[in-house]
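Structure ticket #2291
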Amino acid sequence: MDGYAVRSSDVASLPARLVVVGEAVAGKSWHGTLGPGEAVRIMTGAPVPSGADSVQRVEVTSEHDSIVEIHESTLAGQSIIDKASEIRTGQVVIPKGTRLNAAMMAALAAFGYATPKVYRRPVLTVIPTGVRACIGQSKTWCRPDPRFKWVFDFGLCSPGRCYIGTRTGHR
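Resolution: structure written out below.
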């Protein structure tokens, strides 16, 4: 929620006038400690500054010349969500093997996974072919032709049936 990080004791009597001492946005926090009579402008997703115990929404405030006037009091903890409080310890955020999209990347970032371990989806072409594809039917791997990345016996490689995997192919 966009608004002002404040100390609830500072906004108990209204209207409260506080000095705006900084700004916190998602990805860039304010690194000071909020003192009495101070507020920090805060945007959705930003870490709550040290010393603040609540956030008042911008719709019930007015700011002029670095002074914010708060028109509604707040309770300690108001509009603050603890990091990762949406899930339980050990709960899976996104299952392994899921193809990620922008929304999933945002969810991972919200839980502190800025650089998840990912892998490229494998690409494989299966070409049924004759016995000439494998050199010696008893071998599992062989390299019969430089055009092919590899040949693999899936347990189906018998005279007349082998499968060749190529670098470019169908998913």
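Closing remark: Strands lie at 3-6, 16-24, 38-42, 54-57, 61-64, 67-70, 127-129, 141-142, 150-152, 162-165.
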